Structure formats: structure tokens, C-alpha cells
């Protein structure tokens, strides 16, 4: 395409690092925390540690492939060069499906949190406001989007750090009517593994869903300055922070609060801990933080899904209108198309009621599993082709990547046997539809 129709490389290391954090630290942490604890009890900490290690190994492989192929625009380009057209096509569309469903679900959830302050306004109206806000930010320019996402993610991270400090204080210091509990809650209520290995495996779907979004780094390649240097740096720093911001908070929650009391209340475990320390207006503070977290995740999701449509159109797989850029160098029609899913999501969510988030979380968990598996397999295959060992590379290859692949396959088997049949069936139907469209269009795909 002509130069004036190319995306601009205006994103820096701090931008994509915060974008990955913004995508991963969202509803999965704040809203999914109760579900994960209810499934696994205190052993949820082990589940998030395992998930974090798998994520580390998969993202290292993604960074290595990005360095070896500095012409890649998204991770579809990385995968196609090693695994072929179908895995790349499948990856592209399940990734698009993941974010479209996610932003649709989170638009409604954000409206529910807004209604906490504005009960006089209906859900649809508040959802519309959030949807328009996120759309405008994405339409302005990549730099405006990246800066917005940077500051939204920074606010979330600051509050999580405050939460960790407050939790440590509550664990070891007695004051007023509060008595330091130490680590007694980790074993007193039916042990560290109250629901056994089944509970741990079941929680892994929530864990994988929660970490999902970090791989958005692989969608920023065409708009990142010096991706061969920036991506490895962002991967290293992002993973350290994500693991810390999940494992530490969950360890504090299950240490302070008996695990069997977490899921039985309406408020978030994060609100419960802030109330324990006596912070005035803790419910309002956390409501605002969770709202920002969800909007931040929607922001990243709209970016990721629109870039999938853009690259598909550039390659002739979709109508060229989706490749059209505005004066600010953003794919305006691709963004607007993905935004339309927000309003479809409103209708679906109103019909499905409170089960919407649970159903979507299950389906999205499957999707993240497959995305990571495809990236891992592509990394294994990439080493069989030309490889420059002097640049960034995974030191313990192939052990780390194969560990991640085998672990993901074992989790997938466990999840199939422990997840709702409805969630599995819906997900399988979507995957079959994507596969059928590929075979109908395979002669048109470059």
C-alpha cells in the first residue's frame, strides 16, 4: 500500500508494556477473582503461578519470533511463516472473536458499575456513553490511544500496589479492633486444596482468561518503533508485573479472608480488604478503580480487534474499506465495525442476564488457550528455519516452550471435563464456523 496508507510507528516500550497490562488486568482480576477462589480455595495462588510461568514461556517465544521477523505486522504474520495459512487464519479470527466478545461483555459490566453512582440512568444509556468514549479515544490517533491506555493502566497498578501494602499491614499488624491473622486462613478451612485437584484444574480456565490480553503485544508490531528491540524489553517487564499483580493480591485475599466467605458476598474481595483497614469510602474508591480497569481493557480490546480487520483487508481477505486509514492514520472503518459489537453485546447481555460474564469468561478462556498453543507451536517450528542466535533468543529452548505446550494441552483436557457443556459447545460451534469459512475462502487467501 502507499506510504500514506500505512500505520505509523508511534508506540514506544512504555506504551505497549502498559497496553499489555491494561488488557490483562481487567475484569478477569477484579470480577473473576471471586470465581477463581471459590473453585480452588487458597490453592488459587498455585493456579496463578502455573499460569504465569506458562505465559512467560509463550511470550518469550513471541518476542523471539518478532525479533527474527521485523517485517511482521501482527502475530498472524509470525505464525503463517512457520505453520502455514490455516493456523494463522484460525489464530486471527479467534483472537478477533476473543476481543469482540470481551469488549461487548465489559461494556455492560462497566455500565453496571456506573449505575452504582447514577442509579437513575438505564443500563443501555450508560453502556452507550462508555462505548462512545472508547470509540473516540481509538479514532483520535494511535499516540492518543497509547497515552490514554498508559495512564489508565498506571492508575490500576498504583491501586493494586496500595492494596498489597494494605494487605501486608493487615496480615502482620494488629490495631484497633483488628487482629493480625497471619497465614492461618490458608489451611484452617478444609486445607490448602479444599476442592482437590479438580478445583485447581477448574480454576485454570479463569486463570488463563485473566492472563489473556498480554499477547496484544504481538498485534502492535506495525505501530511500534524498533519492534526488534522494544518487544523483548516490553515482554520482560510486563510479565514480571503481571505475575506480581496477580499472585500477591490473591495470596493476600485468601490469607486475610476465609476462602469460603469470598464468593458469598456481593462486593469484590478488593473492597472487603480496603474496608478492613478502615479506609473511608473504600467501596467508592474500588468501584472507580474497577470501572477504569474495565474501560482500559475495552480500550485495548478495540485496538486489537480493529487491527485484525485492518491486516486482513490489506492482504485482500476482507473488503478494502477496512484498510482505509483516517488522516490520523487509524483504520476508522475497522474500529467502527468492531464498536458495533458493543451494541449487539448489550442486547445479548440483557437477555442472558447475570450469567453473561460467566459464559463469556469460559469461552474466552478456551480461546486464550488455543492462541497460546498456536504461538508456542509456531515458536518450535521457527527454530527449524533460519535463525540468528546473536539477537534476542530464548536461552532454554526447547524445554521452556515444550513445557508450556504440554501444560496447555493438559489444562485443555482438564478444562473440557470440568467446564459447562454449554460453554464448550458454543465455543466449538464458533471454531467450526471459522474453519468452514477458511475452506470456502482458502483460494483467496495469500
Outline the structure in words.
By secondary structure, the chain is mainly α. The chain has a single domain (3-441), classed as Amino acid/polyamine transporter I. The chain contains 16 helices and no strands. The chain has helices at residues 13-24, 27-30, 33-40, 44-68, 75-83, 85-115, 123-140, 142-172, 196-211, 227-256, 269-276, 282-314, 332-352, 356-382, 399-418, 421-441. Helix 6 (85-115) runs antiparallel to helix 14 (356-382), helix 6 crosses helix 16 and helix 14 (356-382) packs antiparallel against helix 15. The longest helix has 33 residues, at 282-314. It starts with 12 loop residues before the first helix and ends in a 5-residue tail after the last helix. 49% of the residues are buried. The mean pLDDT is 77. Pfam families: AA_permease. InterPro entries: AA-permease/SLC12A_dom (IPR004841). Its main location: membrane. The chain crosses the membrane at residues 45-67, 99-118, 124-146, 153-177, 197-222, 243-260, 330-353, 359-378, 399-416, 422-440.
The share of residues in helices is over 70%
Class by SSE composition: mainly alpha
Q: Give the full name of the CATH homologous superfamily.
A: Amino acid/polyamine transporter I
Second rung of CATH, namely the architecture: Up-down Bundle
- CA-based gyration radius: 21 Å
Taken from the alpha-carbon principal axes, the silhouette is: globular
Task: Name the CATH class.
Answer: Mainly Alpha
What is the number of beta strands?
0
How would you sum up the major sheet? none
Number of domains: 1
Amino acid at each position: 500500500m502507499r506510504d500514506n496508507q500505512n500505520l505509523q510507528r508511534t508506540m514506544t516500550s512504555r506504551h505497549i508494556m502498559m497496553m499489555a497490562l491494561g488488557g490483562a488486568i481487567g475484569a478477569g482480576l477484579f470480577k473473576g477473582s471471586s470465581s477463581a477462589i471459590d473453585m480452588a480455595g487458597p490453592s488459587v495462588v498455585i493456579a496463578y503461578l502455573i499460569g504465569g510461568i506458562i505465559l512467560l514461556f509463550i511470550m518469550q517465544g513471541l518476542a523471539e519470533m518478532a525479533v527474527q521477523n521485523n517485517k511482521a505486522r501482527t502475530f498472524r504474520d509470525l505464525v503463517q511463516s512457520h505453520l502455514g495459512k490455516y493456523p494463522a487464519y484460525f489464530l486471527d479470527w479467534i483472537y478477533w472473536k476473543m476481543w469482540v466478545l470481551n469488549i461487548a461483555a465489559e461494556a455492560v459490566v462497566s455500565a453496571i458499575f456506573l449505575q452504582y453512582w447514577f442509579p437513575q440512568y438505564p443500563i443501555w444509556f450508560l453502556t452507550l456513553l462508555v462505548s462512545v468514549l472508547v470509540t473516540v479515544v481509538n479514532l483520535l490517533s494511535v499516540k492518543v490511544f497509547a497515552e490514554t491506555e498508559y495512564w489508565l493502566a498506571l492508575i490500576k497498578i498504583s491501586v493494586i500496589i496500595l492494596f498489597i501494602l494494605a494487605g501486608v499491614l493487615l496480615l502482620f499488624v494488629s490495631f484497633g479492633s483488628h487482629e493480625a491473622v497471619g497465614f492461618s486462613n490458608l489451611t484452617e478451612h478444609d486445607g490448602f486444596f479444599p476442592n482437590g485437584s479438580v478445583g485447581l484444574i477448574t480454576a485454570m480456565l479463569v486463570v488463563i482468561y485473566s492472563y489473556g490480553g498480554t499477547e496484544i503485544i504481538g498485534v502492535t508490531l506495525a505501530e511500534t518503533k524498533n519492534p526488534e528491540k522494544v518487544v523483548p524489553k516490553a515482554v520482560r517487564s510486563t510479565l514480571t508485573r503481571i505475575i506480581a499483580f496477580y499472585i500477591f493480591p490473591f495470596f493476600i485475599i485468601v490469607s486475610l479472608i476465609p476462602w469460603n466467605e469470598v464468593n458469598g458476598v456481593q462486593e469484590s474481595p478488593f473492597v472487603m480488604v480496603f474496608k478492613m483497614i478502615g479506609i473511608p469510602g473504600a467501596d467508592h474508591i474500588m468501584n472507580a478503580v474497577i470501572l477504569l480497569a474495565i474501560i482500559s481493557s475495552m480500550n485495548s480490546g478495540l485496538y486489537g480487534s480493529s487491527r485484525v480487520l485492518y491486516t486482513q483487508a490489506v492482504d485482500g481477505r476482507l473488503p478494502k474499506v477496512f484498510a482505509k486509514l483516517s488522516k490520523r492514520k487509524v483504520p476508522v472503518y475497522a474500529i467502527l465495525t468492531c464498536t458495533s459489537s458493543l451494541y449487539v453485546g448489550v442486547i445479548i447481555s440483557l437477555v442472558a442476564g447475570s450469567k453473561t460474564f460467566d459464559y463469556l469468561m469460559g469461552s474466552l478462556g478456551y480461546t486464550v488457550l488455543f492462541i497460546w498453543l498456536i504461538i508456542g507451536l509456531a515458536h518450535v517450528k521457527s527454530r527449524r528455519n533460519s535463525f540468528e542466535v546473536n539477537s534476542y533468543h530464548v536461552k532454554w529452548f526447547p524445554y521452556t516452550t515444550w513445557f508450556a505446550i504440554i501444560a496447555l494441552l493438559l489444562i485443555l483436557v482438564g478444562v473440557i471435563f470440568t467446564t459447562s457443556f454449554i460453554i464448550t459447545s458454543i465455543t466449538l460451534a464458533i471454531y467450526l464456523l471459522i474453519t468452514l469459512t477458511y475452506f470456502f475462502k482458502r483460494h483467496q487467501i495469500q
